């Protein structure tokens, strides 16, 4: 249902001729994305391999539901946010951590891409939807 965009463009779904997202300033979105990527690069260095491997094991466990994996990912993000010193707002740091974890998991085990992506999108929609909307519309 969702598209993974790698070229820096937003994905929108058409409904009755209208794009599913409100019109926004593309330059603002690019600036926000660049800032998040820079923060992600900093966090990337702080995340230990054992944390990623633990998440990989959860994603590979076919007996776990997507809901259980999402809850586990949420716990890991909350634990990491306590361990990684950051002077930024907590929501932004948690959002970036979720994206960095997703990247690290997929780089470790590429065949998990769809499951990891779907779980991350679900997690972000549940936890940060309003924050993301506010950030883009600001």
UniProtKB/TrEMBL annotation:
Major location (coarse): cytoplasm
Pfam families tied to this protein: BID
Compartment(s) of residence: Cytoplasm; Mitochondrion outer membrane
GO cellular component, one term: mitochondrial outer membrane
InterPro entries, per database record: Bcl-2-like_sf (IPR036834), BID (IPR010479)
Biological process annotations from GO: apoptotic mitochondrial changes; positive regulation of extrinsic apoptotic signaling pathway; positive regulation of intrinsic apoptotic signaling pathway; positive regulation of release of cytochrome c from mitochondria
Alphabetic keyword roster: Apoptosis, Cytoplasm, Membrane, Mitochondrion, Mitochondrion outer membrane
Protein name: BH3-interacting domain death agonist
């Amino acid at each position: 249902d969702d598209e993974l965009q790698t070229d820096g463009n937003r994905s929108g779904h058409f409904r009755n001729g209208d794009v599913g997202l409100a019109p926004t300033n593309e330059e603002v979105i690019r600036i926000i994305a660049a800032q998040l990527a820079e923060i992600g690069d900093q966090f990337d260095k702080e995340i230990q391999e054992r944390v990623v491997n633990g998440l990989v094991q959860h994603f590979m466990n076919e007996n776990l539901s997507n809901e259980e994996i999402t809850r586990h990912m949420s716990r890991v993000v909350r634990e990491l946010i306590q361990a990684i010193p950051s002077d930024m707002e907590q929501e932004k740091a948690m959002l970036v951590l979720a994206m960095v974890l997703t990247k690290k998991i997929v780089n470790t085990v590429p065949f998990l891409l769809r499951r990891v992506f779907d779980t991350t999108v679900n997690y972000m929609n549940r936890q940060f939807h309003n924050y993301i909307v506010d950030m883009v519309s600001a």
